[in-house]
Design a protein that fits this description.
Blueprint: H1 3-17, E1 23-26, E2 30-34, E3 38-42, E4 46-51, E5 54-66, E6 72-86, E7 92-94
Antiparallel strand pairs: 1-2, 2-6, 3-4, 4-5, 5-6, 6-7
Length: 95
Amino acid sequence: MNVNKLAGRYEQLKDKTRSHSYITIKDNTFVEIECCRKVTGFGDNMIELEIPCGLIKIVGLELRLKNFGTDSVKIYGRIHSVGFEENAGHGTEEL
């Protein structure tokens, strides 16, 4: 099996396994996102993450990623906003 076929099958499996994420927000200093697929953007004031159904954008000050593991990521800092954008392109919703 070549690498492209293997990558394609991995993407299919990823799509079937989990189609939702759990987001835990504890005051304005901590966010935990379960089933995070990858980090698509990172800076001191913005972190963007891919989850199964879209993108999560976290804006704040002195943001830090911790415990990026197989199933979740923990973000610490002074969080100002959490935004969500669906994969289908239905726009952005502020939470």
